[in-house]
Amino acid sequence: MTSTDPHSHAHGVDDETHNADVAHEDADIDVGTVLKFGAGLFVTVVVCALIVGGIFKVFVGQAAARDPQISPLARPAGQMPAGPQLLTDEPGALAKFRAEETRALDGYGWVDQIGGVTHIPVAEAKKLLAARGLPVRADAQGHAAAGTGRQAYGEASGGRNIK
Q1: Which of 23, 3, 21, 1 is nearest to 11 (CA)?
Q2: Which residue, 40, 34, 2, 45, is CA-closest to 21?
Q3: Which of 61, 69, 144, 149 has a 20 to 30 Å separation from 46 between CA atoms?
Q4: Residue 120, exposed/middle/buried by CB under 10 A (0-12, 13-18, 19+)?
Q5: What CA–CA distance (Å, rounded) separates 155 from 163?
Q6: Whole-angstrom Cα distance, residue 93 to residue 99?
Q7: At 104, is the pLDDT very low, low, confident or very high (cuts 50, 70, 90)?
C-alpha cells in the first residue's frame, strides 16, 4: 500500500520508527453515498410518520363513534362550576358539621314522615331500651322466647354456664 501523504515516511527516509506495513487510508469517504443514505432515511421517517398519523386518525374516529351522546344541557368537560370550590373556613365548616350532627343525635325529627319513622335523642333511646328491652321472636306457641334452651357448643361463654 503506497501512501500519497506528503508527510509520510515513505520518501526514501529510512527511519527505525517507521513501519512500512502500517499506514492510514488516503481516500475520502464517498459523500454522495452518505447523502443518499440520509435522504433515504429521511423519506423512510416521513412515510412512517404519515402511516402512524393516518392510523391515529382512524382510531380517534372509532373512539368518537363509540362515545355516548352527551346532553346539550351538560357542562362542557373541564369547565368548573361558577364560584370558588375551595373550603376557605375549615374551622367554621367543622363547627357547622358538628352542630348538625349534635342536633340530629340530641333532637327529635322525622326520618320518614310518610312511613312514620322518627329519630329521638340518644339518651332517650337508651332509657326506652332499658325499660322495654329488645324485641325477640315468638316461639311456636306465640310466646316470646328468651333463648333456645340448648348449650352453645363451640361458642365462647366467658366461663358462664349457658342453660
Answers
A1: 3
A2: 2
A3: 61
A4: middle
A5: 13
A6: 10
A7: confident
Question: Residue 70 gets which letter from DSSP?
Answer: P
Residues 6+ apart with CB under 8 A from 107: 119, 121
The sign one gets for the Cα dihedral 119, 124, 127, 128 is: negative
Rounded to whole angstroms, what are the CA distances from 72 to 62, 68, 75, 81, 153? 22, 12, 8, 16, 65
119 and 134 in contact (C-beta within 8 Å)?
Answer: no
Q: Is 109 helix (H, G, I), strand (E, B) or coil?
A: strand
The pTM of this model reads: 0.31
Average model confidence (pLDDT) across the chain:
79
Three-class SS of residue 73? coil
